[in-house]
Amino acid sequence: MGKLSTHVLDTVHGVPAQGVALELYRLEGDSRTLLARTATNQDGRCDAPLLSGPALTRGVYELVFHAGDYFARKGVPLPEPRFVDQVVLRFGVANPDENYHVPLVVTPWTWSTYRGS
């Protein structure tokens, strides 16, 4: 059985991003269901997989990272409105028997992701 995990890297400070609030949603048609609400630990990761085993099913998901709030707490000067505030990553799980690692590399001005394992 597979699992879904994430982590956040703050490339402004060159550290794992501790305390980034995030939500995980499952999308089905027009429906958006909240599956998890958590925050990253001192290593920029969640303490447990967001989904694992039979809870991880084939389909479309969204991760919402509250990056703007994180940078504001760190004292980074931000414009109003923030250029990067909530980062919404919509992705698909085609094979729930595989591991899906969806990291976020972020600054107040840019972000990127990739599929890890």
Automatic annotation (TrEMBL):
Entry's EC annotation: 3.5.2.17
Protein origin, superkingdom: Bacteria
Keywords attached to this entry: Hydrolase, Purine metabolism
Keyword set includes rRNA processing: no
Gene Ontology MF terms: hydroxyisourate hydrolase activity
Residue stretches making up the Transthyretin/hydroxyisourate hydrolase domain: 4-116
Catalytic reaction list: 5-hydroxyisourate + H2O = 5-hydroxy-2-oxo-4-ureido-2,5-dihydro-1H-imidazole-5-carboxylate + H(+)
Pfam families linked to this entry: Transthyretin (PF00576)
Catalytic EC class: hydrolase
Gene3D superfamilies per the UniProt record, alphabetical: Transthyretin/hydroxyisourate hydrolase domain
InterPro entries: Hydroxyisourate_hydrolase, Transthyretin/HIU_hydrolase_d, Transthyretin/HIU_hydrolase_sf
GO biological process entries: purine nucleobase metabolic process
The protein's role, per its UniProt record: Catalyzes the hydrolysis of 5-hydroxyisourate (HIU) to 2-oxo-4-hydroxy-4-carboxy-5-ureidoimidazoline (OHCU).
Self-association state and partner proteins as the record states: Homotetramer.
Protein family per UniProt: Belongs to the transthyretin family. 5-hydroxyisourate hydrolase subfamily.
Protein name: 5-hydroxyisourate hydrolase
